[in-house]
Amino acid sequence: MKRIFITFEGIEGCGKSTQSRLLKEFLEESGVPVMHTREPGGPKISEEIRKILLSNDNAEMVPETELLLYMASRSQHTAEWIIPALDEGKLVISDRYYDSTLAYQGAARKLDRSIIDVITKFATYNLVPDLTILIDLPAEKGLSRIHVDVADRLESESMDFHRKVREGFLDLANEEKERYLIVDGTGSIDEIHSQIISAVKTRFLS
User: Fold this and answer.
1) Cα end-to-end distance, the chain, whole Å
2) CATH number of the domain that 79 lies in?
3) Structural domain of residue 97, as residue ranges?
């Protein structure tokens, strides 16, 4: 099997984490070697950066710092975990990757896209997902699934911010139609899972 890298994207509360785990379980049951991971996070250094990024104690963080911290976490994650797993022949699934930076720090924070693109290529060693699954959901619906008392720094942003994030993801999906699969996040867990399985089978397992 050729190297396969699948990423899941979407706004907060869209269900991508659940769906990425369900895909992992399906593939393992099918005998496919899989590594499942997340961003920000993964290896120890990346998880430590995650704590800084999501802590509500860091509300004063400026967008430029946020961008660079995400990229630092991603660089370690890609070099230490993702590329080695792909080289070992594992199918890698990541709950978020660089498209989240383009949507959150680019579309919503309004940071320069050209700067983000340059740093992204450097931080990812030019690694591009083979398939990106966007679980699309209105911001109001996604945020309604998150309890205010446990919301992290990003989840606590305004509704307008999360609407811009959603628009950013949809714009990216329109730019890269071949790489993206858009799934309606208002469907049931089983309905969404079935659509994803069908697409993965068609693209990679047929």
Assistant:
1) 11
2) 3.40.50.300
3) 5-205
In the chain, how many domains are there? 1
Which residues contact residue 129 at a Cβ distance below 8 angstroms, ignoring those fewer than 6 apart?
Answer: 5, 6, 7, 94, 97, 179
Whole-prediction pTM value?
0.95
Kindly report, residue by residue over 5-54, the tens digit of the pLDDT.
999 999 999 999 999 999 999 999 999 999 999 999 999 999 999 999 99
